[in-house]
Amino acid sequence: MLHKLSNNLFVFYSPNLGSNVYVLVGKRIALIDTSLKANAEDLLDALASIGIERKDVDLVLHTHAHADHIGCTSLFERAEKLMHEADAKKLELCDARYTCSNLFSQEEYPKIDSLLKGNETIDIKPFLLQVIHTPGHTAGSVCFYDEKNKLLFSGDTLFENACGRTDLPGGNEQQMVESLHELQYLKFDVLLPGHGLVFKGDQEENLQAVLKTLKEKYY
Ligand SMILES: [Zn+2]
Ligand SMILES: [Zn+2]
Description:
CATH topology: Metallo-beta-lactamase, Chain A
Oligomer: single chain
Number of domains: 1
Radius of gyration: 16 Å
Number of helices: 5
Bound molecules: zinc ion
Low-confidence stretches: none
């Protein structure tokens, strides 16, 4: 089922371990992450409920290459697919270990069209997304930041009360700390994470608490 966050923004909450899928309906239609392939039917039904068919999707943006975020990507044949180069490289090599394919029982390696490095802007009027490279959960994790609408799509880098795990291949806890510090400079009112509910509470307090827990754990 699709939840409406605003007139142009929807979220598909996966019924299992699959990622959230955000649907941005603007000048172009964009998805952020695509959950597990096991959710394909549910996701397509959810999109159809707001009149979006597979061929209508122009862009698929990925926060990282884990299997739970890329499962339905190849369904959107016409869409331009974007991912940070560090993770896209592993996907191209069909690296099952890096993409956690075994963990999610899914062998799916969609083709990526455009490589991100960080600092790009993606115009999906009324959204203007800035790509923020936030390694830590994986080497090529990114967040998508909309300064004007004060939104942060954080993938598995930041959740309410937690950050993503750093013990998987390509993960690095020191980089995670540095990435979370970077996020402190951004002003956002709404956190749209890769899993769990969209969080509209105090963002500064949340980030501080997450950083404090990390530091207590590791330092
Ligand atoms: Zn995930
Ligand atoms: Zn992940």
